Amino acid sequence: MFNFNASRWTRAQAMKINKQDKTTMMPEIGTDFPIMRDDLWLWDTWPLRDINGNVVSFKGWTVIFSLVADRKIAWNNRHSHARIGYFYSKDGKSWIYGGHLLNETANTRTAEWSGGTIMAPGSRNQVETFFTSTLFNESGVAEAVAAVTKGHIYADNKGVWFSGFDQSTDMFQADGLFYANYTENNLWNFRDPHVFINPEDGETYALFEGNVAMVRGQSAVGEEEIGFVPENTAVAEDSCLCSASIGIAHCLSDDRTEWELLPPLVTAFGVNDQTERPHVIFQNGLTYLFTITHNSTFADGLTGSDGLYGFVSENGIFGPYEPLNGSGLVLGGTPSQPTESYAHYMMNNGLVESFINEVIDPKTGKIIAGGTLAPTVQVELQGHETFATEVKAYGYIQADYAWPVRSIPDRRPSIR
Ligand code: FRU
Q: What is the pTM of this model?
């Protein structure tokens, strides 16, 4: 049933990244940004949506989910303390904190990492959160498993609350065959499930971040990974330590708990080590695959912006994919604030939300941790190109429609 080859993001394509291009640039964030909560760090964020990627409101409230940790914890230590918190808003920009989504015991491991939250198709108020159940030990991440937890949403005119989310089910984990596991690569990445229905075949899939299955550092980067570069272009030997992939799994059960891993859609061996939070938009017959990465995770000899990258396919979800804008860069930091924002997420309506990561104080050179939402940016998708056109409010999320609606949207979204 599945017959496709991974598309390669090559070094030659990544060499085209232009950090000066204003059409792929965030607005500059100064040191005076507003903070949503002075008791919480918040970072990776996603909206309550339907399984086709449309943002929904529930009884007049827009709802978002963020990784949160106590602000008393050092910014760089937050990952091992991450829990999923939720916020709700009437206007999509003034957010009220509702607390943790999962009961303390729902996650069978120690931290709750990124994922996504959908209204269960056809349900009145059933909610499913796909997340990364992560186990930390003394040396770092020991396990990372895609998991699902379920509950119900309720709201009145004072706010939103949830029931359930008191247990979780593992969905899939790195197999060492398509995706590197801990034994092959103890710095392996495997996380951030994004569940959606593919309009072409009506099947349910999950995208996620992985690494190419191989023993770290044992394979050389080849010509196919390098691409068409000028002759005598040096490729540092240790670029083989970078092996990110965008993975895909196929759902085997109606309750979205049973899955099979498929080979990756995109690989970045020799190019970059992390392709995080992958997600997809179907528009005008094209399939747009988005992911986030850092400058620091590019292989030696390459540089990029911290931010959103993307790939486009003319043949549906299985590709082949080409990098958007030739290089892959869709929305990154500014030359003077290169790490200002991260964990970008593009919605079907072209709005891209992200969180404020680290802003450099131009007076002192000191780094100021953000831990709050960044200005949302409108990005137009035009064939194989993208254009940042408009800056919205900090943390602005726009619901596409109200749930529940009388006629629940068809499983197949109309291609816009
Ligand atoms: C991106 C990310 C995700 C991960 C989370 C952990 O910012 O690294 O890939 O789920 O943050 O905090």
A: 0.96
